[in-house]
């Protein structure tokens, strides 16, 4: 049902259906407008559309002093966690496919365990567990730890599924020309697997970026912290501020989403990749594709 | 280990709250998500547009932001109240609004992808016997669509179990925040407490995975 959209669910409307559709469009349009009006007046009663609550966002210093530093912190945490999570994912994804049982089983336990635990719990654990071990764990380190371990485990599953989706002949051909095991992995399997899994990997990185907002709970000075604590503390404008911050998040995530789509289209077009992205993604479990 | 045994009633209470959050917001998101999916495939451009805007906005906003908006924005600034004297009940319902609003966007996309798997002939046959759009959807398309997406819906539910911890951001005493409190109370037993809570989440999510896998196989539409 792609291409022409959902049109197979209903016929091309004739004169009567067109009339009915127009009436219904009018009715639902009015209903939606009423809902919007209701929300608008409720916020208006509390003075949320007051110009002086929104005015700070027209001034440069609100952005340069309060919001952009938060955005920078969010992006730094996301970037560092993304790099570490990719490393974690590559190492554990490959380790789970090891021929040695003493490597394969512990790696599997680690990946499955960290996938089952909520990120927020990992962040709390990093803070308290770190100080137990005598380390000074900053909010930044705790957030990066939580995001790395959780998303790294999910990426490990993606990498594993990607490698498994490369046709077996590829590895066999590699062995046949005398490559060692790590050469087969490094030169033959990984490049194809990563290309095939690129869209899923980018989607997971979007999840990671969104999850940096959890830093708010432990008072890491990220974008959400700027929008929900710092700016409202200065101008008492929580709702306008959260709406503005949400817009920033949405624009960043939509941009990354388009990147993921573009990569997917490109990898589908290219015939060089032997692994089938769709099959690999399905093998990695629904969550991979879904929670973005 | 002692700390975990001593605090067992408290820990179980926290997980009971997690379960309540999951079940209530899960049911709301399922219903609302199916309604949204129906809107997104309807013949009316107004509804399609409204559904698309809703899904794209909610899916691309961090859950923490949504919950904070519900808790502080709706709760404190707009004084939306569910109970005059019980503050914890208030934040419980506010976080349910946030969780449901967020999860339903994902449910909508999953159900919509399920609708795409229903063969064209099914919809055509339904129209040929004179069913209206809503009847086609309700009697023919959705029953088949939902059955094909049981497994993805299961992983969404699984993610929801973990996402309920975000309600800690507005002070709901579910598992994660309770764990932090116990860390404060028992500084010497951080690892056992963490393992206890981690085990709790495994206990909650593992049966869900098995069950959704079995359901998906049993209810699969044979084509």
From TrEMBL, chain B:
It is a multi-pass membrane protein. SUPFAM superfamilies: MetI-like (SSF161098). It is found in: Cell membrane. Residues 15-212 form the ABC transmembrane type-1 domain. Gene3D superfamilies: MetI-like (1.10.3720.10). The chain crosses the membrane at residues 14-39, 60-80, 92-111, 156-177, 189-211. It comes from the Bacteria. This is Amino acid ABC transporter permease. It comes from Microbispora hainanensis.
């Amino acid at each position: 049902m792609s291409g022409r959209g959902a049109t197979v669910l209903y016929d091309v409307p004739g004169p009567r259906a067109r009339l009915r559709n127009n009436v219904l469009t009018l009715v639902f349009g009015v209903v939606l407008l009423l809902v919007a009006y209701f929300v608008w007046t409720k916020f208006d009663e509390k003075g949320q559309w007051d110009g002086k609550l929104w005015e700070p966002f027209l001034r440069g210093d609100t952005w340069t002093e309060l919001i952009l530093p938060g955005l920078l912190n969010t992006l730094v945490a996301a970037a560092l966690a993304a790099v570490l999570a990719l490393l974690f994912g590559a190492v554990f994804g490959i380790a789970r496919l090891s021929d040695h049982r003493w490597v394969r089983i512990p790696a599997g336990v680690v990946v499955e365990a960290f996938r089952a635990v909520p990120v927020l719990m990992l962040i709390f654990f990093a803070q308290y567990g770190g100080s137990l071990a005598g380390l000074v764990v900053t909010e930044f380190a705790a957030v990066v730890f939580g995001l790395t371990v959780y998303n790294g485990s999910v990426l490990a599953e993606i990498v594993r599924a990607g490698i498994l989706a490369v046709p077996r002949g590829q590895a066999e051909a590699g062995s046949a020309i005398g490559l060692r095991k790590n050469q087969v992995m490094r030169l033959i399997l990984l490049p194809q697997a990563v290309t095939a899994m690129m869209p899923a990997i980018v989607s997971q990185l979007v999840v990671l970026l969104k999850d940096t907002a959890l830093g708010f709970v432990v008072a890491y000075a990220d974008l959400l912290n700027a929008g929900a604590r710092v700016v409202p503390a200065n101008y008492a404008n929580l709702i306008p501020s959260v709406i503005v911050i949400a817009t920033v998040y949405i624009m960043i995530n939509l941009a990354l989403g388009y990147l993921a789509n573009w990569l997917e289209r490109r990898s589908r077009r290219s015939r060089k990749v032997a692994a089938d992205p769709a099959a690999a993604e399905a093998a990695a479990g629904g969550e991979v594709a879904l929670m973005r | 280990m002692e700390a975990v045994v001593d605090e067992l009633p408290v820990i179980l209470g926290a997980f009971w709250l997690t379960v309540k959050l999951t079940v209530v917001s899960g049911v709301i998101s399922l219903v609302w998500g199916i309604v949204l999916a129906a809107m997104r495939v309807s013949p009316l451009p107004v509804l399609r547009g409204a559904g698309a805007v809703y899904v794209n906005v909610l899916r691309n906003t961090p859950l923490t932001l949504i919950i904070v908006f519900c808790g502080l924005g709706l709760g404190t600034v707009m004084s939306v109240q569910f109970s005059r004297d019980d503050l914890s009940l208030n934040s419980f319902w506010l976080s349910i609004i946030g969780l449901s609003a967020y999860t339903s966007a994902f449910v909508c996309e999953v159900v919509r992808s399920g609708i795409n798997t229903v063969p064209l002939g099914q919809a055509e046959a339904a129209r040929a016997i004179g069913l209206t759009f809503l009847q086609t959807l309700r009697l023919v398309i959705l029953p088949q669509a939902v059955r094909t997406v049981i497994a993805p819906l299961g992983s969404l539910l699984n993610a929801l179990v973990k996402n309920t911890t975000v309600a800690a951001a507005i002070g709901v005493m579910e598992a994660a925040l309770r764990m932090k409190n116990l860390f404060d109370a028992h500084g010497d037993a951080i690892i056992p407490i963490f393992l206890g809570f981690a085990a709790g989440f495994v206990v909650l999510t593992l049966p869900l995975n098995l069950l959704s896998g079995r359901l998906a196989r049993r209810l699969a539409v044979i084509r």
